[in-house]
Amino acid sequence: TQLLEQSPQFLSIQEGENLTVYCNSSSVFSSLQWYRQEPGEGPVLLVTVVTGGEVKKLKRLTFQFGDARKDSSLHITAAQPGDTGLYLCAGIVRYGGSQGNLIFGKGTKLSVKP
Amino acid sequence: GAVVSQHPSWVICKSGTSVKIECRSLDFQATTMFWYRQFPKQSLMLMATSNEGSKATYEQGVEKDKFLINHASLTLSTLTVTSAHPEDSSFYICSARRPYAYNEQFFGPGTRLTVL
């Protein structure tokens, strides 16, 4: 069962464009993390959101946690070729059998062309 | 920072041999480490949870006798792929959970295993 739906799976845009990646679930998360992974490397933690409605900014990246803590979004402003990579959302489930484990979305492969 | 190292970064072995992969948390103690497997163009698949001083918890479908996990200390977990076969070829990634920090996991750089 895929608890965390991430969309889109693939995104190819031109440098300077904006984009948004979404993670949705029917489960409530105690926290949600966004990672970026480059080919042949491990994921690197970008941000952790823990409070419903929380918004965090990391330079041109804006992360939002839904009020009900069931969804999150990542918005990139004026994308650059250096933003190219695989973006993964991952949440800690608050209730249920998977409680405590990090549940990953399928990832969004972003390609930013100069 | 929270740095996790993994060794080796890549390994090529013959079918039937065993391969050990090490995962170390360099600047924090991790009572819990995780082992993931990642296929090309796919997300991470959790294989097992490794707890210091106790037996690992394996996910459904993961053979515990095939993938031996040892969490010998608060900074080291090892994954041994026993009697490796070509279908075991994959990218193996470990992570370490930093306590008291919203259960954040920090990942190692991964190990590319190729079984001939």
Task: Provide tags for this entry.
heterodimer, A: 114 residues, mainly beta, 6-stranded mixed beta sheet, 5-stranded antiparallel beta sheet, 0% helix, B: mainly beta, 7-stranded mixed beta sheet, 4-stranded antiparallel beta sheet, globular
3D shape of chain B: globular
Compute the CA-based radius of gyration of chain A. 14 Å
Largest sheet of chain A: 6 strands, mixed
Biggest chain pair contact, residues each? A-B, 23 and 23 residues
- Large-scale geometry of chain A: globular
Gap between N and C termini of chain B:
37 Å
Tally of alpha and pi helices of chain A = 0
Based on DSSP secondary structure assignment, what is the total number of beta strands of chain B?
A: 11
Order of helices and strands of chain A: EEEEEEEEEEE
Mean of pLDDT of chain B: 91
Largest sheet of chain B: 7 strands, mixed
What is the β-strand count of chain A? 11
Strand content of chain B: over 45%
Mean pLDDT of chain A: 91
